[in-house]
Amino acid sequence: MLSAYPGISNADLARLTVLTPQTVSVIVGNLEKAGSVVRRPHAVHGRIQHLDLSDSGRALLKKCRERVQRLERELTAALSANEERAVRRWLVAVSIADTAG
Q1: Of 37, 29, 34, which is closest to residue 5 (Cα–Cα)?
Q2: Which pTM was predicted?
Q3: pLDDT per residue rounded down to tens, the chain (101 residues)
Q4: What is 8-100's CATH number, 3.40.190.10, 2.60.370.10, 3.90.1170.50, 1.10.10.10?
Q5: C-beta of residue 17 within 8 angstroms of C-beta of residue 23
Q6: What is the number of other CB atoms lying within 10 angstroms of the CB of residue 97?
């Protein structure tokens, strides 16, 4: 999400990911300690901080995306195109139902 929404705040990130602010704070703190996320102060609001990926965070995201794509290829290798579409539709439906509930 930080890649898609650079400069987002902790609170906005929590809303976007449907996680509690406390959970997001712990995750962001761990990513910051690892050097993957950087914070910078908001120009107007002193308590709000913008979050961005660092260079190492972008490299880590790239590596993770490549791994996920490889795993997806492995998981879908035995499926027909129609079966893969059905699985993806089901996963979207489960995701939407989970966030609506």
Answers
A1: 37
A2: 0.75
A3: 999 999 999 999 999 988 999 999 999 999 999 999 999 887 777 678 899 999 999 999 999 999 999 999 999 999 999 999 999 999 999 988 766 65
A4: 1.10.10.10
A5: no
A6: 9
Cβ neighbours of residue 27 closer than 8 Å, sequence gap 6 or more: 19
Residue with token string 């794509």: 69
Listed in sequence order, the residues at least 6 apart from 6 whose beta carbon sits closer than 8 Å to its beta carbon are 52, 53
**Both tokens of residue 4?**
């898609």
- Name the residue type at position 97: A
Instruction: Give the whole-angstrom CA distance, residue 49 versus residue 25.
Output: 12
Rounded distance between C-alpha atoms, residue 36 and residue 58, angstroms: 7
Q: Encoding tokens for residue 96?
A: 């939407």
